[in-house]
Amino acid sequence: xxxxxxxxxxxxQLALEAVLRDLEGQERCDQLIIAGDxxxxxxxxxxxxxxxxxxxxxxxxxxxxxxxxxxxxEKGEKKRxxxxxxxxxxxxxxxxxxxxxxxxxxxxxxxxxxxxxxxANPLNLEDAIFPNADDEALERLLSGLDARVGAxxxxxxxxxxxxxxxxLLLADVASCGIPRDEDLRAAYGILTWQTDQWEAEIRRAxxxxxxVIKQIKTCGMPNAEKRSKVLLEARY
Length: 236
What we know:
This protein has 236 residues and is of the alpha/beta class.
């Protein structure tokens, strides 16, 4: 069983196209799952949303998907202005689609242990699972998982890594649209059931980042300079 997972597209159409091209060149996957954060903070939210819907695959909700729905009343003015612009781009139908996305998606493994896909962690949309998280932090976020889950895949942090905690595989598939681990290429993950456990591969797909910078500067989205800087630096 092979499962491809794309997370944190953030309105970056060219990055999503690059990932889908790369995926076409891989050994066939049994399923594709989108792990949230579809539209906000990128220059092509409407186009990305349309592409995702046309994939007809499971899609879960990310934190900025929820912020787009709620209009992020607790956030600052700059964030709310980007949310407002994104809502205008995707329209009420797009907002309703984001509002209806589920929190998680579980891949049932008929052989043995399942794969659970979430956006940030199994409890909420906000708390990141850091690659150096200690046992106390992991116990708080992961202890509620049932024993049949053998792998947890997620995004949110935008930093690719894999690690094992006890007998659970953790796989952060990073970000398709806004990487933050100093690699400008679009990222996604492929998880494979191998004999008696899950294995994860993080793949990278190059794309024309400068073309996206031009889109950011000409599309009318607020805070264009900050968004361009984040995309070009690919770090926190």
